[in-house]
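WARN no homologs supplied; continuing
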Amino acid sequence: MPSTVAHSLTSFAVGFVLHALTSTRFSALHVFLLVLHSTNGPDIGSVVEFLLSGIAPKFGTLLMDIVHHPIGYALTAGLAWAWVGTWMSRVDVVFGGQSWRDVRIVSRVGGRQWRRRRGRRRQDDGNDDYGDEYENGDAIGLAEEGGDNNDEEEEQTKDELDDSAGLGSQHLTFLNSWLLCVAGSLLHFRLDTLYEGNGQTPEYRWILSTGYWLPGANDIIYPSVGLAFFFSLSTLITAMLIVHTSLRTTLPLPTRVSALLATSEGRLVVTAGTAMVVAVVYLLFVYSRMAIVPRVPAVGEEADFGVLVFEALTGILPLTLCAWVSR
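OK structure emitted
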């Protein structure tokens, strides 16, 4: 099975590419949580099974079956880790400067409100007790000693401090943290499915079972692949030409369609929707051929149905979830 190193390196590569492509909106914390869930998340079940092997082996195996599952992990241990992710997005780590042990976890929440309270207090008694505020855990207020700043400068300084920590200026909601948990879990089982048990995992065998490996498969491969290639590729290319060139403004399209294509978000929706329609139609076609008894090859021996379902769930869906939380 893939080791912890293999899981961590592959998920880190995915997260780092997203970090660069989104101009760090997919922040360092997003990358860390994605790697955490993809690496050690579902494998917590195997650790629990090992610890309970001498006490309650059946119960340990039950927990293993529940936690070491792409959905089971997200609905059990993943919920606790999602809460940890939201907490991590609200704190920072600072060095006090006294000794190497003077490293503290401080809150990121309330920086602007504290500065306003400090201004009011200066008018009241003329004192600025930075030490007390530091003990209360305001890293942002501590970093800005001396002088009154207007709201614009305060907001800019807060963003710069957040960016310098690599965490981004937005706190993670519980939903976004949980979506990262789901994405990491799916990436974990992507590797487990393909590279575990010498290719004899039930999921991998199911993918291959959607193909046709009996004699006669190649008799239909050229006409079937040719037709599928023509209709799918022609549909996608036509959509791309209309949506992403000047044709969208020069063709006599319906008013609602033209209005939708006038925005980048609308063009994104139309492009993704077209690809989704092509995928669904093709999957229905392949599945209908698989349902014929005896089996009739849809596109030769290719296991397209299993491949597309697997790639959609463990390849495209995790990337979509990561893109969603980095908006």
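The chain has three domains: 4-89+171-191, 91-164, 211-302.
OK
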